Amino acid sequence: MIPYNFDYYAPATVAEAAALFQRLDAEGKQPLYYSGGTEIITIGRINRIYTEAVIDLKRIPDCRQAAVQSGKLVLGSALTLSELYDSRVFPLLGETGAGVADRTSRNKITFGGNICSKFIYREAVLPLLLTDSEVRIAGPGGARQTPIAEAFDGQLRLGRGEFVVQTVTDESYARMPYVTIKKRKVAAIDYPLVTVAALRTSEGIRIAFSGVCAFPFRSQAVERMLNRRELPLRDRIDQSIALFPAPVISDIKGSAAYRELVLKLVMEQTMRALGGE
Amino acid sequence: MAGTDRYTIVLELNVNGEMRRAAARPADLLLDVLRDSFGLTGAKPGCLNGDCGACTVLVDGWPMKSCLMLAVEAEGKAVTTVEGLKNTAVQREFVDKFAFQCGYCTPGFVMNVYGLAHLRPDADEHTVKDWLQSNICRCTGYEEIRDAVVSVLQRRASSAADAAVAEDATNAADGAVDSPMRKGSAANGSDT
Protein backbone atom coordinates (compact mmCIF):
# COMPACT_ATOMS: atom_id res chain seq x y z
CA MET A 1 0.00 0.00 0.00
CA ILE A 2 1.17 3.48 -0.78
CA PRO A 3 1.01 5.27 2.58
CA TYR A 4 -0.15 8.65 1.33
CA ASN A 5 -2.80 10.03 -0.97
CA PHE A 6 -2.48 11.60 -4.37
CA ASP A 7 -4.73 12.62 -7.24
CA TYR A 8 -4.50 10.83 -10.57
CA TYR A 9 -4.70 12.58 -13.92
CA ALA A 10 -4.68 10.98 -17.37
CA PRO A 11 -4.33 13.77 -19.93
CA ALA A 12 -4.99 13.08 -23.60
CA THR A 13 -2.41 15.43 -25.11
CA VAL A 14 1.15 16.57 -24.51
CA ALA A 15 0.02 20.17 -24.05
CA GLU A 16 -2.61 19.13 -21.51
CA ALA A 17 -0.03 17.16 -19.51
CA ALA A 18 2.41 20.08 -19.44
CA ALA A 19 -0.32 22.54 -18.43
CA LEU A 20 -1.48 20.18 -15.69
CA PHE A 21 2.02 19.93 -14.30
CA GLN A 22 2.40 23.69 -14.25
CA ARG A 23 -0.91 24.18 -12.43
CA LEU A 24 -0.36 21.39 -9.90
CA ASP A 25 3.18 22.52 -9.28
CA ALA A 26 1.95 26.06 -8.59
CA GLU A 27 -0.56 24.59 -6.12
CA GLY A 28 2.28 22.87 -4.25
CA LYS A 29 1.16 19.33 -5.14
CA GLN A 30 4.69 18.18 -6.05
CA PRO A 31 3.36 16.49 -9.22
CA LEU A 32 5.12 13.57 -10.86
CA TYR A 33 4.81 12.35 -14.40
CA TYR A 34 3.75 8.72 -14.33
CA SER A 35 4.39 6.29 -17.15
CA GLY A 36 4.85 2.62 -16.21
CA GLY A 37 4.78 3.81 -12.62
CA THR A 38 6.66 0.83 -11.24
CA GLU A 39 9.35 2.97 -9.66
CA ILE A 40 6.91 5.50 -8.20
CA ILE A 41 4.86 2.65 -6.68
CA THR A 42 7.77 0.68 -5.24
CA ILE A 43 9.67 3.68 -3.92
CA GLY A 44 6.48 5.38 -2.80
CA ARG A 45 5.52 2.31 -0.82
CA ILE A 46 8.56 2.84 1.41
CA ASN A 47 8.08 6.60 1.59
CA ARG A 48 11.17 7.50 -0.41
CA ILE A 49 9.25 9.56 -2.90
CA TYR A 50 6.28 11.80 -2.25
CA THR A 51 3.67 13.42 -4.44
CA GLU A 52 0.12 14.70 -4.16
CA ALA A 53 -0.58 14.28 -7.88
CA VAL A 54 0.52 11.90 -10.62
CA ILE A 55 0.10 12.68 -14.32
CA ASP A 56 -0.21 9.46 -16.33
CA LEU A 57 1.33 9.82 -19.79
CA LYS A 58 0.13 6.47 -21.19
CA ARG A 59 -3.08 7.83 -22.73
CA ILE A 60 -1.24 10.42 -24.81
CA PRO A 61 -1.04 9.04 -28.37
CA ASP A 62 2.31 10.74 -29.06
CA CYS A 63 3.81 8.89 -26.09
CA ARG A 64 2.56 5.57 -27.46
CA GLN A 65 3.69 6.08 -31.03
CA ALA A 66 5.86 3.57 -32.88
CA ALA A 67 6.44 4.68 -36.44
CA VAL A 68 8.97 5.23 -39.18
CA GLN A 69 8.82 8.76 -40.56
CA SER A 70 11.16 9.82 -43.37
CA GLY A 71 13.75 7.23 -42.48
CA LYS A 72 13.55 8.01 -38.77
CA LEU A 73 12.31 5.57 -36.17
CA VAL A 74 10.02 7.42 -33.77
CA LEU A 75 9.34 5.66 -30.47
CA GLY A 76 7.01 6.95 -27.79
CA SER A 77 8.24 7.12 -24.23
CA ALA A 78 5.24 5.17 -22.89
CA LEU A 79 5.91 2.07 -24.96
CA THR A 80 6.76 -0.77 -22.63
CA LEU A 81 10.06 -2.61 -22.71
CA SER A 82 8.14 -5.78 -23.67
CA GLU A 83 6.52 -4.02 -26.61
CA LEU A 84 9.90 -2.80 -27.84
CA TYR A 85 11.35 -6.30 -27.54
CA ASP A 86 8.43 -8.06 -29.20
CA SER A 87 8.15 -5.62 -32.09
CA ARG A 88 11.78 -6.07 -33.23
CA VAL A 89 11.67 -2.55 -34.70
CA PHE A 90 14.98 -1.67 -33.02
CA PRO A 91 16.56 -4.97 -31.93
CA LEU A 92 19.48 -3.39 -30.04
CA LEU A 93 17.05 -1.36 -27.95
CA GLY A 94 14.62 -4.26 -27.54
CA GLU A 95 17.29 -6.68 -26.35
CA THR A 96 19.04 -4.20 -24.07
CA GLY A 97 15.67 -3.38 -22.50
CA ALA A 98 14.95 -7.08 -22.13
CA GLY A 99 17.73 -7.28 -19.54
CA VAL A 100 15.78 -5.02 -17.18
CA ALA A 101 13.78 -6.69 -14.38
CA ASP A 102 11.63 -9.66 -15.51
CA ARG A 103 9.23 -10.23 -18.41
CA THR A 104 6.00 -9.49 -16.50
CA SER A 105 7.46 -6.33 -14.97
CA ARG A 106 8.59 -5.27 -18.44
CA ASN A 107 4.95 -5.48 -19.52
CA LYS A 108 4.56 -2.39 -17.30
CA ILE A 109 7.97 -0.69 -17.27
CA THR A 110 8.18 1.89 -20.02
CA PHE A 111 11.03 3.02 -22.20
CA GLY A 112 10.83 6.63 -20.98
CA GLY A 113 10.48 5.58 -17.37
CA ASN A 114 13.65 3.50 -17.57
CA ILE A 115 15.65 6.34 -19.13
CA CYS A 116 14.44 8.74 -16.44
CA SER A 117 14.87 6.27 -13.58
CA LYS A 118 16.14 7.39 -10.17
CA PHE A 119 18.36 4.31 -10.13
CA ILE A 120 21.78 4.57 -11.72
CA TYR A 121 21.40 1.96 -14.46
CA ARG A 122 18.92 3.36 -17.04
CA GLU A 123 20.04 0.71 -19.51
CA ALA A 124 17.56 1.66 -22.24
CA VAL A 125 19.55 4.82 -22.85
CA LEU A 126 22.59 2.90 -24.10
CA PRO A 127 21.20 2.20 -27.61
CA LEU A 128 20.17 5.86 -27.89
CA LEU A 129 23.68 7.00 -27.05
CA LEU A 130 25.18 4.55 -29.57
CA THR A 131 22.91 5.70 -32.39
CA ASP A 132 23.15 9.47 -31.84
CA SER A 133 19.39 9.52 -31.35
CA GLU A 134 17.44 12.63 -30.54
CA VAL A 135 14.91 13.17 -27.77
CA ARG A 136 11.65 15.04 -28.11
CA ILE A 137 10.96 16.76 -24.82
CA ALA A 138 7.91 18.77 -23.85
CA GLY A 139 7.02 20.95 -20.90
CA PRO A 140 5.29 24.14 -19.86
CA GLY A 141 7.76 26.12 -21.98
CA GLY A 142 6.91 24.20 -25.15
CA ALA A 143 8.56 21.36 -27.05
CA ARG A 144 12.13 20.81 -28.17
CA GLN A 145 14.17 18.15 -29.93
CA THR A 146 17.69 17.61 -28.66
CA PRO A 147 20.55 15.21 -29.47
CA ILE A 148 20.78 12.59 -26.74
CA ALA A 149 24.47 13.43 -26.25
CA GLU A 150 23.43 16.93 -25.17
CA ALA A 151 20.34 15.92 -23.21
CA PHE A 152 21.91 13.04 -21.32
CA ASP A 153 24.83 13.63 -18.99
CA GLY A 154 24.66 10.62 -16.69
CA GLN A 155 20.99 11.39 -16.38
CA LEU A 156 18.52 13.12 -18.60
CA ARG A 157 18.66 16.88 -18.14
CA LEU A 158 15.03 17.95 -17.96
CA GLY A 159 13.77 21.38 -17.01
CA ARG A 160 11.04 21.76 -14.41
CA GLY A 161 7.84 20.19 -15.72
CA GLU A 162 9.48 18.66 -18.77
CA PHE A 163 9.01 15.06 -19.85
CA VAL A 164 10.20 12.81 -22.69
CA VAL A 165 7.61 12.40 -25.42
CA GLN A 166 9.53 10.42 -28.02
CA THR A 167 12.96 9.42 -29.24
CA VAL A 168 14.03 9.73 -32.86
CA THR A 169 16.62 7.38 -34.35
CA ASP A 170 17.98 7.09 -37.88
CA GLU A 171 16.45 3.87 -39.14
CA SER A 172 19.73 2.69 -40.70
CA TYR A 173 21.14 2.04 -37.22
CA ALA A 174 18.49 -0.60 -36.59
CA ARG A 175 20.12 -2.81 -39.24
CA MET A 176 23.75 -2.56 -38.06
CA PRO A 177 25.51 -5.41 -36.23
CA TYR A 178 25.26 -5.07 -32.47
CA VAL A 179 26.01 -6.79 -29.21
CA THR A 180 24.31 -6.29 -25.85
CA ILE A 181 25.50 -8.19 -22.78
CA LYS A 182 24.39 -7.92 -19.17
CA LYS A 183 26.28 -9.64 -16.36
CA ARG A 184 24.73 -9.96 -12.92
CA LYS A 185 26.23 -11.12 -9.65
CA VAL A 186 24.30 -14.40 -9.37
CA ALA A 187 20.61 -14.30 -10.20
CA ALA A 188 18.97 -14.16 -13.61
CA ILE A 189 16.98 -11.11 -12.53
CA ASP A 190 19.01 -8.33 -10.94
CA TYR A 191 20.65 -5.00 -11.47
CA PRO A 192 23.86 -5.31 -13.47
CA LEU A 193 27.41 -5.78 -12.44
CA VAL A 194 28.17 -4.73 -15.98
CA THR A 195 25.99 -3.99 -18.99
CA VAL A 196 27.67 -3.35 -22.33
CA ALA A 197 25.92 -2.41 -25.56
CA ALA A 198 27.91 -1.97 -28.77
CA LEU A 199 27.31 -1.25 -32.42
CA ARG A 200 29.53 -1.66 -35.48
CA THR A 201 29.25 1.23 -37.94
CA SER A 202 31.30 1.94 -41.06
CA GLU A 203 33.56 4.18 -38.93
CA GLY A 204 34.25 1.64 -36.22
CA ILE A 205 32.82 0.12 -33.08
CA ARG A 206 30.76 2.22 -30.69
CA ILE A 207 30.31 1.07 -27.12
CA ALA A 208 28.31 2.21 -24.08
CA PHE A 209 28.21 1.05 -20.48
CA SER A 210 25.84 0.77 -17.51
CA GLY A 211 26.45 -0.52 -14.02
CA VAL A 212 30.19 0.09 -14.30
CA CYS A 213 30.34 3.67 -13.09
CA ALA A 214 27.73 5.63 -11.15
CA PHE A 215 25.93 6.50 -14.38
CA PRO A 216 25.50 5.10 -17.91
CA PHE A 217 27.86 6.56 -20.49
CA ARG A 218 29.35 6.45 -23.95
CA SER A 219 32.82 7.97 -24.31
CA GLN A 220 34.48 9.10 -27.54
CA ALA A 221 37.90 8.70 -25.89
CA VAL A 222 37.14 5.10 -24.95
CA GLU A 223 35.92 4.32 -28.47
CA ARG A 224 38.99 5.91 -30.10
CA MET A 225 41.24 3.72 -27.99
CA LEU A 226 39.24 0.54 -28.63
CA ASN A 227 39.32 1.13 -32.40
CA ARG A 228 43.14 1.47 -32.54
CA ARG A 229 43.63 -1.86 -34.26
CA GLU A 230 47.39 -1.48 -34.44
CA LEU A 231 47.41 -2.34 -30.72
CA PRO A 232 46.62 -5.79 -29.25
CA LEU A 233 42.97 -6.02 -28.16
CA ARG A 234 43.71 -6.60 -24.48
CA ASP A 235 46.03 -3.58 -24.36
CA ARG A 236 43.31 -1.45 -25.94
CA ILE A 237 40.81 -2.65 -23.35
CA ASP A 238 43.18 -1.96 -20.44
CA GLN A 239 43.97 1.51 -21.72
CA SER A 240 40.35 2.34 -22.52
CA ILE A 241 39.25 1.57 -18.96
CA ALA A 242 41.78 4.13 -17.76
CA LEU A 243 39.85 6.65 -19.86
CA PHE A 244 36.48 6.01 -18.19
CA PRO A 245 34.78 9.22 -17.02
CA ALA A 246 34.41 8.05 -13.40
CA PRO A 247 35.72 5.35 -11.06
CA VAL A 248 34.43 1.80 -11.39
CA ILE A 249 31.90 1.39 -8.60
CA SER A 250 32.27 -0.94 -5.65
CA ASP A 251 29.11 -2.15 -3.94
CA ILE A 252 27.31 -5.20 -2.55
CA LYS A 253 27.08 -6.69 -6.04
CA GLY A 254 30.81 -6.60 -6.62
CA SER A 255 34.02 -4.86 -5.65
CA ALA A 256 35.56 -2.48 -8.15
CA ALA A 257 38.31 -5.02 -8.85
CA TYR A 258 35.83 -7.83 -9.54
CA ARG A 259 33.64 -5.56 -11.64
CA GLU A 260 36.67 -4.51 -13.68
CA LEU A 261 37.60 -8.14 -14.28
CA VAL A 262 34.08 -8.94 -15.50
CA LEU A 263 34.10 -5.75 -17.56
CA LYS A 264 37.31 -6.70 -19.35
CA LEU A 265 35.95 -10.13 -20.23
CA VAL A 266 32.70 -8.66 -21.52
CA MET A 267 34.53 -6.01 -23.53
CA GLU A 268 36.75 -8.63 -25.13
CA GLN A 269 33.71 -10.79 -25.96
CA THR A 270 31.97 -7.76 -27.41
CA MET A 271 34.89 -6.62 -29.53
CA ARG A 272 35.45 -10.11 -30.93
CA ALA A 273 31.76 -10.57 -31.70
CA LEU A 274 31.82 -7.38 -33.75
CA GLY A 275 35.06 -8.20 -35.54
CA GLY A 276 37.03 -5.62 -33.61
CA GLU A 277 40.03 -7.72 -32.62
CA MET B 1 -4.74 8.11 6.79
CA ALA B 2 -5.68 11.77 7.28
CA GLY B 3 -7.88 13.32 4.61
CA THR B 4 -8.53 10.09 2.78
CA ASP B 5 -12.23 10.91 2.15
CA ARG B 6 -11.23 13.86 0.02
CA TYR B 7 -9.30 11.44 -2.21
CA THR B 8 -11.89 8.67 -2.45
CA ILE B 9 -13.15 7.98 -5.96
CA VAL B 10 -15.52 5.42 -7.44
CA LEU B 11 -13.72 3.01 -9.71
CA GLU B 12 -15.51 0.95 -12.32
CA LEU B 13 -13.49 -2.07 -13.36
CA ASN B 14 -14.15 -4.93 -15.76
CA VAL B 15 -13.06 -7.94 -13.72
CA ASN B 16 -13.54 -11.47 -15.01
CA GLY B 17 -16.07 -10.19 -17.50
CA GLU B 18 -18.20 -8.33 -14.95
CA MET B 19 -18.36 -4.60 -14.35
CA ARG B 20 -17.55 -4.01 -10.69
CA ARG B 21 -17.55 -0.76 -8.70
CA ALA B 22 -15.39 0.12 -5.74
CA ALA B 23 -14.68 3.16 -3.60
CA ALA B 24 -10.92 3.53 -3.58
CA ARG B 25 -8.05 5.99 -3.45
CA PRO B 26 -6.15 6.78 -6.64
CA ALA B 27 -3.10 5.58 -4.72
CA ASP B 28 -4.61 2.13 -4.13
CA LEU B 29 -2.97 -0.80 -5.85
CA LEU B 30 -4.94 -3.05 -8.16
CA LEU B 31 -3.96 -5.96 -5.91
CA ASP B 32 -5.57 -4.35 -2.86
CA VAL B 33 -8.78 -3.40 -4.66
CA LEU B 34 -9.16 -6.91 -6.09
CA ARG B 35 -8.70 -8.49 -2.68
CA ASP B 36 -10.23 -5.98 -0.27
CA SER B 37 -13.05 -4.48 -2.35
CA PHE B 38 -14.03 -7.42 -4.54
CA GLY B 39 -13.02 -10.33 -2.31
CA LEU B 40 -10.98 -11.86 -5.10
CA THR B 41 -8.17 -13.25 -3.00
CA GLY B 42 -6.63 -15.42 -5.73
CA ALA B 43 -4.02 -12.78 -6.46
CA LYS B 44 -1.61 -13.10 -3.54
CA PRO B 45 0.37 -10.40 -1.76
CA GLY B 46 3.96 -11.57 -1.64
CA CYS B 47 6.88 -9.20 -1.89
CA LEU B 48 4.68 -6.21 -2.83
CA ASN B 49 7.70 -4.99 -4.75
CA GLY B 50 7.24 -6.56 -8.18
CA ASP B 51 9.73 -9.32 -7.52
CA CYS B 52 7.78 -12.51 -6.76
CA GLY B 53 4.87 -12.58 -9.21
CA ALA B 54 2.39 -14.05 -6.71
CA CYS B 55 -0.03 -11.19 -7.48
CA THR B 56 0.01 -11.70 -11.27
CA VAL B 57 -3.28 -11.11 -13.10
CA LEU B 58 -4.08 -10.50 -16.75
CA VAL B 59 -4.77 -6.98 -17.95
CA ASP B 60 -6.14 -6.96 -21.47
CA GLY B 61 -4.74 -10.46 -21.68
CA TRP B 62 -1.19 -9.58 -20.65
CA PRO B 63 0.38 -10.80 -17.40
CA MET B 64 0.71 -7.92 -15.00
CA LYS B 65 1.90 -7.74 -11.41
CA SER B 66 -1.07 -6.22 -9.64
CA CYS B 67 1.21 -4.80 -6.94
CA LEU B 68 2.87 -2.68 -9.64
CA MET B 69 -0.34 -1.20 -10.96
CA LEU B 70 -2.71 1.37 -9.54
CA ALA B 71 -6.32 0.20 -9.66
CA VAL B 72 -7.26 3.42 -11.39
CA GLU B 73 -4.94 2.48 -14.26
CA ALA B 74 -7.09 -0.57 -14.94
CA GLU B 75 -10.23 1.41 -15.75
CA GLY B 76 -11.28 0.68 -19.32
CA LYS B 77 -9.26 -2.53 -19.42
CA ALA B 78 -10.23 -6.18 -18.98
CA VAL B 79 -8.81 -7.63 -15.75
CA THR B 80 -8.72 -11.40 -15.32
CA THR B 81 -7.87 -13.04 -12.01
CA VAL B 82 -7.45 -16.72 -11.33
CA GLU B 83 -11.11 -16.78 -10.23
CA GLY B 84 -11.95 -15.99 -13.86
CA LEU B 85 -10.43 -19.22 -15.12
CA LYS B 86 -12.69 -22.26 -14.93
CA ASN B 87 -11.01 -25.64 -15.24
CA THR B 88 -8.74 -24.49 -18.05
CA ALA B 89 -6.06 -26.66 -19.61
CA VAL B 90 -3.40 -24.70 -17.70
CA GLN B 91 -5.09 -25.45 -14.38
CA ARG B 92 -5.56 -29.11 -15.28
CA GLU B 93 -1.90 -29.47 -16.28
CA PHE B 94 -0.76 -27.89 -13.01
CA VAL B 95 -2.77 -30.56 -11.18
CA ASP B 96 -1.68 -33.42 -13.43
CA LYS B 97 2.01 -32.49 -13.20
CA PHE B 98 1.93 -31.73 -9.44
CA ALA B 99 3.13 -28.25 -10.31
CA PHE B 100 2.52 -26.82 -6.84
CA GLN B 101 3.45 -27.56 -3.27
CA CYS B 102 2.25 -25.01 -0.71
CA GLY B 103 0.24 -23.36 -3.48
CA TYR B 104 0.82 -19.73 -2.54
CA CYS B 105 2.58 -18.87 -5.78
CA THR B 106 0.27 -21.02 -7.94
CA PRO B 107 -2.33 -18.42 -9.00
CA GLY B 108 0.43 -16.09 -10.16
CA PHE B 109 2.13 -18.85 -12.14
CA VAL B 110 -1.20 -20.00 -13.61
CA MET B 111 -2.06 -16.50 -14.82
CA ASN B 112 1.39 -16.00 -16.33
CA VAL B 113 1.29 -19.38 -18.07
CA TYR B 114 -2.26 -18.76 -19.27
CA GLY B 115 -1.06 -15.52 -20.85
CA LEU B 116 1.96 -17.26 -22.36
CA ALA B 117 -0.11 -20.08 -23.86
CA HIS B 118 -2.44 -17.60 -25.54
CA LEU B 119 0.02 -14.95 -26.61
CA ARG B 120 2.99 -17.17 -27.45
CA PRO B 121 1.56 -20.62 -28.23
CA ASP B 122 4.69 -21.39 -30.25
CA ALA B 123 7.03 -20.25 -27.45
CA ASP B 124 10.53 -21.73 -27.60
CA GLU B 125 12.56 -22.79 -24.57
CA HIS B 126 14.13 -19.34 -24.22
CA THR B 127 10.74 -17.62 -24.22
CA VAL B 128 9.26 -20.05 -21.70
CA LYS B 129 12.22 -19.50 -19.38
CA ASP B 130 12.09 -15.74 -19.84
CA TRP B 131 8.40 -15.57 -18.93
CA LEU B 132 8.61 -18.03 -16.02
CA GLN B 133 11.46 -16.09 -14.44
CA SER B 134 8.84 -13.48 -13.54
CA ASN B 135 7.50 -15.72 -10.77
CA ILE B 136 9.15 -17.20 -7.70
CA CYS B 137 8.22 -20.50 -6.05
CA ARG B 138 9.72 -20.69 -2.56
CA CYS B 139 8.99 -24.42 -2.50
CA THR B 140 11.19 -24.59 -5.63
CA GLY B 141 8.74 -26.64 -7.68
CA TYR B 142 10.12 -25.23 -10.89
CA GLU B 143 10.64 -28.47 -12.81
CA GLU B 144 7.03 -29.54 -12.35
CA ILE B 145 5.83 -26.07 -13.31
CA ARG B 146 7.97 -26.17 -16.42
CA ASP B 147 6.59 -29.63 -17.24
CA ALA B 148 3.05 -28.28 -16.97
CA VAL B 149 3.91 -25.40 -19.30
CA VAL B 150 5.51 -27.67 -21.87
CA SER B 151 2.49 -29.96 -21.74
CA VAL B 152 0.07 -27.06 -22.24
CA LEU B 153 2.06 -25.76 -25.20
CA GLN B 154 2.32 -29.22 -26.76
CA ARG B 155 -1.41 -29.78 -26.41
CA ARG B 156 -2.06 -26.43 -28.03
CA ALA B 157 0.32 -27.24 -30.87
CA SER B 158 -1.38 -30.57 -31.49
CA SER B 159 -4.78 -28.92 -31.85
CA ALA B 160 -3.50 -25.67 -33.27
CA ALA B 161 -5.83 -25.32 -36.21
CA ASP B 162 -9.09 -25.70 -34.31
CA ALA B 163 -7.83 -23.78 -31.32
CA ALA B 164 -6.61 -20.88 -33.43
CA VAL B 165 -10.01 -20.44 -35.02
CA ALA B 166 -11.79 -20.55 -31.67
CA GLU B 167 -9.21 -18.27 -30.11
CA ASP B 168 -9.51 -15.65 -32.83
CA ALA B 169 -13.25 -15.62 -32.38
CA THR B 170 -12.95 -15.21 -28.60
CA ASN B 171 -10.37 -12.47 -28.81
CA ALA B 172 -12.30 -10.62 -31.45
CA ALA B 173 -15.38 -10.74 -29.25
CA ASP B 174 -13.44 -9.40 -26.26
CA GLY B 175 -11.74 -6.68 -28.34
CA ALA B 176 -8.90 -6.56 -25.87
CA VAL B 177 -5.97 -5.30 -27.91
CA ASP B 178 -4.90 -1.77 -27.01
CA SER B 179 -1.31 -1.62 -28.10
CA PRO B 180 0.15 -0.35 -31.37
CA MET B 181 2.83 -3.03 -31.20
CA ARG B 182 1.25 -6.05 -29.57
CA LYS B 183 -0.13 -8.91 -31.57
CA GLY B 184 -3.16 -10.62 -30.04
CA SER B 185 -4.30 -10.80 -26.50
CA ALA B 186 -5.13 -13.54 -24.02
CA ALA B 187 -8.68 -12.82 -23.02
CA ASN B 188 -11.18 -14.21 -20.57
CA GLY B 189 -12.92 -17.48 -20.90
CA SER B 190 -11.24 -19.69 -23.47
CA ASP B 191 -10.09 -23.12 -22.46
CA THR B 192 -6.30 -23.02 -22.44
TrEMBL record, chain A:
Q: Which Pfam families match?
A: FAD_binding_5
InterPro entries to which the protein is assigned, alphabetical: CO_DH_flav_C, CO_DH_flav_C_dom_sf, Diverse_Substr_Oxidored, FAD-bd_PCMH, FAD-bd_PCMH-like_sf, FAD-bd_PCMH_sub1, FAD-bd_PCMH_sub2, Mopterin_DH_FAD-bd
Origin organism is Gordoniibacillus kamchatkensis
Q: Does the keyword Transcription regulation apply?
A: no
Q: Does the keyword Lipid metabolism apply?
A: no
Q: Under what name is this protein listed?
A: Xanthine dehydrogenase
Identify the residues that the record assigns to the FAD-binding PCMH-type domain, covering every copy: 1-174
Which keywords has UniProt assigned to this entry? FAD, Flavoprotein, Oxidoreductase
